[in-house]
């Protein structure tokens, strides 16, 4: 009798535990529309906190822990394999840095919530890894059924990240697995722009050439308007002129000082112990864009989920809203050394 009671208690405990969980499910697929070049996907889980978060679900607002049905490595690698039946030559490695949900304020019937997401991808060749892509951001949602919206969109966020990865070419240099522990620090420690006190004068068309300090070859003369704004760079060699417009430039360096092309023109780049940065905000350095975000994450019908594009339902760009609230406030905005993008992760 005692043994029966123990078994019953264990069964009830397991049932209660399972009822306190909300399972993340696949949405659509992770297929590569340009053809699969990766034979498999492996996940290195570097999250300091493996717990995604707890949120209230249902009419009773029961607190449930958001979880993957298995380990994150097994879940994503299986999802990838199911989506890409024809194996490629290379292995794709995803390094998961953060995946965390948090509740925000309630306004009327709608509640806000955030999904903090950070991940990197690498192409693996034998024992070496070549960087592909990185995303480090916070997605913000607002809906009356906020918990359900967040859980449904976690796989969409992952799918968006994977779809972008497929479009990226791996960097030329490779590293061993030890560098993946803190790849950003590795890049900074091996970057000429970070190591050297003086920047090389010249025109840089992308972030890789800037951080490697390899400007366009030849002597380019900066042409400016009456307000001192750079219009183009011109090289005159052997009677042949080569012109680079301001819009083509990532950065130009003049007298050892760097200037970054932005929506508001060229802004001065400074450097401190954290990296290269300019003073501004989203509204000042980026053009206005639609806050609606949609992505096709695949499926059986026409390469889309249920024949429809899956969207980040209830999402709004956190930075765009904050920019309206802090219209005149500017702060340090860093340039991500891995992607050349603006780093708004501290917003």
Could you characterize what this model shows?
- It is a single chain.
- About 10% of the residues have low confidence.
- This protein is an alpha+beta fold.
- Strands 8-12-13-14-15-19-20 form a seven-stranded antiparallel sheet.
- It is 23% helix and 37% strand.
- It is globular, with a radius of gyration of 24 Å.
- The protein is built from eight helices and 20 strands.
The ordered H/E elements are: HEEEEHEEEHHHEHEEEEEEEHEEEHEE
Strand-residue proportion: 35-45%
Sheet/helix structural class: alpha+beta
User: Order of strands side by side in the largest beta sheet?
Assistant: 8-12-13-14-15-19-20
Total number of strands:
20
Helical region count? 8
Helix content: 10-25%
Average pLDDT, rounded to a whole number, is 84
Shape, please?
globular
Alpha-carbon distance between the two ends: 59 Å
Q: What radius of gyration results from the CA coordinates?
A: 24 Å
- Which residue ranges are poorly predicted, with pLDDT under 50 across at least 5 consecutive positions? 8-18, 290-311
Main sheet? 7 strands, antiparallel
């Amino acid at each position: 009798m005692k043994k029966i009671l123990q078994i019953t208690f264990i069964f009830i405990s397991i049932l209660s535990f399972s009822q306190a969980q909300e399972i993340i499910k696949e949405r659509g697929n992770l297929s590569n529309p340009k053809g699969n070049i990766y034979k498999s996907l492996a996940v290195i889980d570097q999250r300091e906190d493996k717990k995604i978060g707890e949120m209230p679900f249902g009419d009773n607002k029961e607190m449930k822990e958001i979880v993957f049905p298995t380990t994150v490595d097994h879940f994503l690698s299986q999802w990838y394999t199911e989506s890409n039946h024809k194996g490629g030559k290379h292995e794709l490695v995803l390094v998961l840095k953060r995946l965390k949900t948090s509740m925000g304020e309630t306004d009327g019937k709608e509640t806000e919530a955030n999904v903090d997401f950070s991940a990197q991808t690498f192409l693996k060749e034998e024992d070496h890894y070549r960087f592909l892509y990185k995303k480090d951001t916070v997605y913000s949602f607002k809906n009356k059924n906020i918990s359900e919206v967040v859980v449904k969109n976690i796989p969409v966020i992952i799918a968006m990240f994977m779809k972008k990865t497929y479009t990226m070419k791996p960097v030329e240099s490779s590293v061993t697995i030890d560098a993946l522990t803190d790849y950003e620090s590795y890049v900074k420690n091996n970057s000429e722009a970070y190591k050297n006190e003086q920047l090389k004068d010249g025109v840089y068309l992308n972030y890789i050439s800037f951080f490697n300090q390899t400007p366009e070859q030849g002597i380019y003369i900066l042409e400016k308007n009456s307000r001192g704004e750079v219009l183009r760079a011109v090289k005159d060699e052997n009677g042949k002129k080569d012109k680079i417009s301001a819009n083509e430039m990532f950065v130009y360096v003049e007298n050892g000082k760097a200037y970054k092309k932005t929506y508001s023109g060229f802004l001065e780049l400074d450097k401190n112990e954290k990296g290269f940065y300019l003073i501004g905000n989203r509204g000042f350095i980026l053009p206005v864009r639609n806050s609606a975000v949609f992505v096709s994450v695949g499926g059986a019908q026409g390469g889309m989920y249920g024949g429809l594009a899956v969207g980040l339902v209830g999402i709004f760009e956190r930075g765009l809203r904050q920019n309206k609230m802090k219209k005149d406030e500017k702060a340090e905005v860093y340039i991500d050394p891995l992607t050349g993008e603006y780093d708004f992760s501290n917003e």
